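--- STAGE predict ---
source: upstream dedup step, 1 unique chain passed
mode: sequence only
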Amino acid sequence: MLRRDYLAGANRSTAASVLDQVPNWIGDYNGVAPHSALGYRAPVEHRRLLQDSQATSVAGLKERTVCS
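--- STAGE serialize ---
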């Protein structure tokens, strides 16, 4: 689904010019634009936080296993 925000400022003079812009819109939507389902974080930021959280959990598990 394309956001209206992308179309509002887009060059819509030809179908080809619109199609040329689509990859950038998709990249922005998937990487930069905040999503309400992700706590208004961008998907890239959300993935980074998940990875950091998982790394912390694994490190804590290893520490508990070694200390036990």
